[in-house]
Design goal:
Blueprint (H helix, E strand, L loop, with lengths): L3 E8 L2 E6 L3 E5 L16 E5 L2 E7 H6 L8 E5 L7 E4 L1 E8 L3 E4 L7 E6 L2 E5 L2 H13 L12 H7 L3
Parallel strand pairs: 2-11, 5-7
Antiparallel strand pairs: 1-2, 1-8, 3-6, 4-5, 6-7, 9-10, 10-11
Length: 160
């Protein structure tokens, strides 16, 4: 196992980790511009150095509760994805040859756990995240009213 650097962050009170090499920038949340008909896990798009970059609310995607536009935004390396992740907070950066182990979960997600010196963190891999997002986009998940869970459906609920 070689020494790697990991960014430890929190979403919904749970510790998560990304390989630091997958993160291009960490920033305070800028203005989010709405994405028409996007699923609710996308609070909007940001202008990141002149490039439109969609923002994914990981708390909403994984736990069904929004971070509310506060916290930090982790802009992924564009070689991995044109995507930014909204997280609750950045905890620290750790260095080490930490083992990653599979762990079943009761929240419906099979997490890989990174075992760091002071505990564990749920390991997020951009490739697997993109596969999850693609599967979500291709599945016709509907709410109790039969609407796809996009912004338009939520906005129209109050107009009924």
């Amino acid at each position: 196992m070689s020494e790697r650097r990991y960014l430890i962050f929190e979403i919904a009170g749970e510790r998560h980790a990304l390989l630091l090499e997958n993160v291009a920038e960490i920033m305070d949340p800028p203005v989010f511009y709405p994405i028409p008909k996007a699923p609710l896990c996308y609070p909007g798009v940001i202008n990141c150095h002149g490039r439109p970059t969609p923002v994914l609310d990981l708390a909403f995607l994984y736990y069904g509760k929004s971070a509310g536009g506060t916290g930090k935004v982790l802009v992924l390396d564009r070689k991995k994805a044109n995507l930014a992740l909204l997280v609750q907070s950045v905890v620290n950066i750790v260095f080490g040859p930490f083992p990653v182990v599979a762990a079943a979960s009761n929240d419906g997600v099979d997490w890989k756990m990174l075992q760091v010196a002071d505990g564990t963190a749920r390991f997020v891999e951009p490739e697997e995240l993109l596969e999850t997002l693609e599967a979500e986009m291709n599945s016709p998940l509907k709410d109790s009213a039969g609407n796809l869970p996009g912004r338009a459906a939520v906005l129209n609920e109050g107009n009924g």
